[in-house]
């Protein structure tokens, strides 16, 4: 390879951890002569890809950034007054630099290990407090995917509350006001159809809900910008025994009476305008708040307050969240649906501005909107509504306004030929107002002429209740204070910039800086999802090229980028299968086979898509029980819709029988859905289409390097065979079928597609294959180092694992009273996040190192695990107490280690610095082990009063 070729391939060696020398040492430890030999031994020959992937060769990082800058200029940055739930915003620089662009925040994992997640947990608690205060409802979650899917979740929550028996629906109807956002109606209808919910559209003013309704959805302010008083309608719905959800706007709620005070049972919406860029549709955090009655049914995650082993305040995911995780097909929602990074940005926006700052932003926006209304009315132009917050709908000829507006770099929303929508936001200036007025020939204004004018909000709906009274929202208003607060929280969290996060099936690989940088560029971040197509040429190129690459990688023919999480991808893929069967007059096919070894979110997604789950057994070696599968496929032959499989399986093995499994399902008329959770062990080696699947979803936040952000964003595009292409999700803004949209925006969280596009272009056809090979190498190297000390639960036919493997810790419960959780907590003292705990097998840990980790880091983790094995042995041999030992007391905080009293039988050094490497980079858990039981008995999910902190410390 010459110097120029080396330059073009520079990213490959920067992404893949082991160098050539380390690779050879690792192969020696495993006992194989070459990387090719290891792959041949691991991946069944009958599914191997015979040709290189037809994707471009690798690019240097500088060439790639130059290329993407050129593509970005095909997007046109206009001033957007389209609204419809998406608004321009100003991301405070201190938040942009210290959270959005900071790997200490964007590489965090979901806070399942609370002791090393206290920073993001506090920020998410701030988010919940902000939402609860602004909506006037006591319980809020830590975010959902987007406003439209949040509305669908509210519908489902109400439906389940009043229709316990889904086979005999007593209340099948859900009312949706005509003036709910179109994209929300679209997604609600999609979610309703598989559950046999009857969506009834109408005018809330004349609607007469009766006992056949289980709920209603309203928009506040509505799609046309009008601020309506819904009190009497809400009373009607409640009188009929049903519930009401209000889709609303957080900024508007600083001035408007909150939904909780109007009587709503749930409030939801998007937190996007709290400092999160438009990004052509996302990622954006939805918010969701409910009355206390729904605290055990609320979808998504709730962060709650508890105490740790020392009695100190400790945050963790509350009981409701953990319940959803273990319910499988009985789950009422999927806890993977969250946007933690964006929720943290929105929360910090509220912390930075505080209640007075937010009210000033809202008031400025409302005053400017009213100023435009008054000037237009003075010109004789009809403004449709008397009461509004930031959005006007006016009677004006679109054919004359639109060309002038676009020439001025302005986007309005057009409702047919004679109606124009104008939605203002915090970025709107007096100059912008004058530019708008000039288009209507309606005069000009000055700051002096605006200041005395009132907003167009009716007195009966003006907010009187206070909000954001907690000190956290009233302290950090200088940049110095804010920067230090963000850093203080970051220091409590273990992220990828600290050490390896070896979570099996979650793939915490490198999120390269070059992949991330363009997300902050204005030509990507400031594009409205409903901007005219001739302004979005850059996104068009990226989405088309990325779709083609993903089709090549999966062996399929068509792709939808719309699903904005892995769980949403599962759901979308299943809807495609459902629609396919219905198109063949086989809508009765409703049985979905799911092996016990499949990805954990599969059963809940299947039920949401209207299928009945039939579980397929696993053999002792972890393989799918093919005999059981064939028997169940045959037994349900007339109603078989398909199967959901994960490949390699969640047990970490490539099953040689996978083609036989696919053939069996096809034989009985079903379709094969392949979960893309473990696609990072397939790319360039095999492919779902090659194996025999019909549809798969891809977790771009795993295989294709989108960061996890503390529990979101994620993306779950689906790829399908040609026969399923016609059933991919549509969207109202694309003039495609309205019954299949699964997300609010046509391309989901479009801006982060740039990351996966970069990953593929930088690695190229050879590099993406190497990534799969090194994922297999790293896992097998760790397995080889650990298997003499621990039982490895499952192996492939030739004794190897795929890209992950399961360590069985169950024997230690008998021999030493040590459980998997004790090992997980002790790993924190060694500076590591625990592997996936007790999934897919209780009492085990599942380790996945990813290709991005070098040998030295793999060795540090293995050394830690081997040292922990000796600590367990000390208990087994009676050298350490079975109840009070170093594992049971883990993790050890700085406060415990430095306390005047030390009552433990082991030394402080053994507790805090068990191996030499720990001294060089010690990470201190900020709390001792969390007491979940205490928190579950005392559910607190908003910031407590300051007195609570003093009580906890005392």
UniProtKB/TrEMBL annotation:
Q: Where is the Glycine cleavage system P-protein N-terminal domain?
A: 14-440, 455-731
User: Which keywords accompany this UniProt record?
Assistant: Oxidoreductase, Pyridoxal phosphate
Modified sites of kind N6-(pyridoxal phosphate)lysine:
702
Which cellular component terms (GO) are annotated to the entry? cytosol; glycine cleavage complex
What InterPro entries does the record tag this protein with? GcvP (IPR003437), GDC-P_C (IPR049316), GDC-P_N (IPR049315), GDC_P (IPR020581), PyrdxlP-dep_Trfase (IPR015424), PyrdxlP-dep_Trfase_major (IPR015421), PyrdxlP-dep_Trfase_small (IPR015422)
> What family name appears in the similarity comment?
Belongs to the GcvP family.
Q: What is this protein called?
A: Glycine dehydrogenase (decarboxylating)
Source organism per entry reads Chitinophaga rupis
Q: Which gene encodes it?
A: gcvP
């Amino acid at each position: 390879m010459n110097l120029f070729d080396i330059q073009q391939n520079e990213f490959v060696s920067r992404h893949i951890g082991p160098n050539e020398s380390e690779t050879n040492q690792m192969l020696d430890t495993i006992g194989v002569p070459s990387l090719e030999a290891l792959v041949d031994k691991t991946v069944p020959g009958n599914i191997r890809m015979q040709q290189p992937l037809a994707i471009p060769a690798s690019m240097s990082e500088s060439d790639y950034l130059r290329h993407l800058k050129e593509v970005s200029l095909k997007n046109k940055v206009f001033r957007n007054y389209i609204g419809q739930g998406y608004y321009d915003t100003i991301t405070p620089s201190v938040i942009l630099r210290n959270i959005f662009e900071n790997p200490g925040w964007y590489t965090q994992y979901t806070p399942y290990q609370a002791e090393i997640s206290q920073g993001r947990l506090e920020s998410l608690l701030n988010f919940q407090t902000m939402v609860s205060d602004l909506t006037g409802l006591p319980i809020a979650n830590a975010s959902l995917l987007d406003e439209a899917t949040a509305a669908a979740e509210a519908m489902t929550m109400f439906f389940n509350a009043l229709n316990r028996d889904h086979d005999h629906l007593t209340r099948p109807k859900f009312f949706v006001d005509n003036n709910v956002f179109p994209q929300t109606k679209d997604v609600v209808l999609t979610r309703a159809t598989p559950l046999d919910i009857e969506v009834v559209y109408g005018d809330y003013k004349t609607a007469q809900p009766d006992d056949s309704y289980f709920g209603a959805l309203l928009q506040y302010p509505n799609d046309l910008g009008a601020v309506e008083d819904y009190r009497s309608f809400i009373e009607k719905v409640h009188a009929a025994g049903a519930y009401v959800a209000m889709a609303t706007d957080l900024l508007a709620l600083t001035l408007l009476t909150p939904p909780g005070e109007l009587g709503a049972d749930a409030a939801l919406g998007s937190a996007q305008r709290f400092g999160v860029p438009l990004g052509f549709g996302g990622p954006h955090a939805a918010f969701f708040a409910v009355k206390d009655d729904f605290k055990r049914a609320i979808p998504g995650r709730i962060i709650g307050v508890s105490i740790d082993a020392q009695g100190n305040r400790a945050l963790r995911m509350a009981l409701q969240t953990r319940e959803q995780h273990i319910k499988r097909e009985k789950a009422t929602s999927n806890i993977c649906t969250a946007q933690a990074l964006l929720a943290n940005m929105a929360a910090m926006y509220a912390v930075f501005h505080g209640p007075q700052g937010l009210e000033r932003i809202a008031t400025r926006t409302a005053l400017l909107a009213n100023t435009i209304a008054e000037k237009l009315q003075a010109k004789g132009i009809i403004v449709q509504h008397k009461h509004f917050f930031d959005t006007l709908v006016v009677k004006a000829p679109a054919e004359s306004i639109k060309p002038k507006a676009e020439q001025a770099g302005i986007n309005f929303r057009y409702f047919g030929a004679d109606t124009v929508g104008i939605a203002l936001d915090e970025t709107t200036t007096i100059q912008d107002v004058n530019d708008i007025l000039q288009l209507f020939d309606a005069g000009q204004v000055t700051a002096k002429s605006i200041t005395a004018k009132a907003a167009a909000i009716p007195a009966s709906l003006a907010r009187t209740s206070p909000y954001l009274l907690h000190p956290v929202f009233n302290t950090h208003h200088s940049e110095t204070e804010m920067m230090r607060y963000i850093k203080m929280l970051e220091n409590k969290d273990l992220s990828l910039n600290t050490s390896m996060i070896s979570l099996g099936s979650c793939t915490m690989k490198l999120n390269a800086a070059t992949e991330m940088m363009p997300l902050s560029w204005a030509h990507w971040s400031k594009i409205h999802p409903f901007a005219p197509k001739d302004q979005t040429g850059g996104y068009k190129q990226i989405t088309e090229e990325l779709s083609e690459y993903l089709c090549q990688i999966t062996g399929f023919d068509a792709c939808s980028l719309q699903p904005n999480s892995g769980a949403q991808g599962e759901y979308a893929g299943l809807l495609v299968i459902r629609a396919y069967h219905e198109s063949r007059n086989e809508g009765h096919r409703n049985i979905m086979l799911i092996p016990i070894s499949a990805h954990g979110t599969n059963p809940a997604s299947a039920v949401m898509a209207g299928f009945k789950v039939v579980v397929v057994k696993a053999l002792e070696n972890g393989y799918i029980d093919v005999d059981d599968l064939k028997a169940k496929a045959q037994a349900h032959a007339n109603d078989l819709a398909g199967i959901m499989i994960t490949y390699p399986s969640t047990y970490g093995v490539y099953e040689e029988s996978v083609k036989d499994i696919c053939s069996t399902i096809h034989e009985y008329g079903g379709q094969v859905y392949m979960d893309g959770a473990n696609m990072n062990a397939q790319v360039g080696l095999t492919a779902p289409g090659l194996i025999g699947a019909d549809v798969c979803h891809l977790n771009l936040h795993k295989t294709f390097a989108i960061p996890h952000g503390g529990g979101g964003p994620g993306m779950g595009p689906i790829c399908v065979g040609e026969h399923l292409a016609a059933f991919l999700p549509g969207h109202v803004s694309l003039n495609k079928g309205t019954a299949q949209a699964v997300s609010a925006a046509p391309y989901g969280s479009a801006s982060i597609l740039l990351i996966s596009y970069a990953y593929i272009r930088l690695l190229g056809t050879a590099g993406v294959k190497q990534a799969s090979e090194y994922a297999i190498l790293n896992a097998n190297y760790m397995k080889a180092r650990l298997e003499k000390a621990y039982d490895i639960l499952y192996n492939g036919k030739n004794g190897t694992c795929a890209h992950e493997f399961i360590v069985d810790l169950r024997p230690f419960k008998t021999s030493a009273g040590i459980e998997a959780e004790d090992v997980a907590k002790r790993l924190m003292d060694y500076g590591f996040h625990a592997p996936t705990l007790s999934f897919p097998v209780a009492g085990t840990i599942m380790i996945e190192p990813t290709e991005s980790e070098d040998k030295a880091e793999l060795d540090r983790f293995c050394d830690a695990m081997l040292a922990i094995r000796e600590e367990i042995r000390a208990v087994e041999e009676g050298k350490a107490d079975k109840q009070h030992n170093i594992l049971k007391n883990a993790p050890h905080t700085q406060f415990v280690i430095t306390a005047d009293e030390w009552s433990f039988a082991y030394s402080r050094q053994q507790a805090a610095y068990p191996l030499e490497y720990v001294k060089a980079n010690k990470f201190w858990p900020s709390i001792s082990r969390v007491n979940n039981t205490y928190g579950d008995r005392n559910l607190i999910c908003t910031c407590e009063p300051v007195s609570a902190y003093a009580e906890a410390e005392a």
